[in-house]
Amino acid sequence: MYELPLKARMINAKRKAQLSSLDLILAVSIFSIVLAAFFLFIYAEEKSFESEKTRVDMLNKAQLITDILLESPGSPKNWETIFATNPSSVKAIGLSNFSRVIDGNKLDVFLGINYFYARDLFNIAPYHYYLEMTYTDGTVLGTSGNLSEVSAAKNVVALQRFATYSNETIRIMFKLSD
Predict the structure, then answer these.
(1) Residue 87: closest CA among 124, 61, 62, 112
(2) What are the per-10-residue average pLDDT scores of the chain (178 residues)?
(3) Structural domain boundaries in the chain
(4) Beta carbons of 156 and 54 less than 8 angstroms apart
(5) How far are the Cα atoms of 14, 119, 149 from residue 68, in angstroms, in the given order?
(6) pTM
């Protein structure tokens, strides 16, 4: 069997070593790309999870607020009569003395409350709200909240409820945004 001279074997070994270096560079590059893609995927999933978590929190708060507004007289029960003289004694705003039957006096006082004060009573900060009450023919009965903030928001949840006001059915649209 013929053996290559030493010089030829060294040149051959050097070429193999160079090929191995290129293989290593290629392997590290591919590994880096795969690793970067993995972390980008994890980051995107985390952002998606946080967004969904915020949305669920907003939906829960919107349901709670509309339940309190439409199913409760508020706290204290006569909050609308004492609000003008002692607003700090009001713990919760409710619009109904009977389930889903809106009290006109409570509604009038509620619609006159400052947005930020109502938001604090709802305990929804940092979220923004907008509430619109309309008759079934589309005539607006009243609004409360900050429509411009809600309209400009990226995440918005909306709930539609129905109630009775002055023996007429009204639609209550409540929107909450981040």
Answers:
(1) 112
(2) 58 57 82 86 76 89 95 94 92 93 96 94 93 96 94 92 96 95
(3) 58-177
(4) no
(5) 81, 14, 23
(6) 0.73
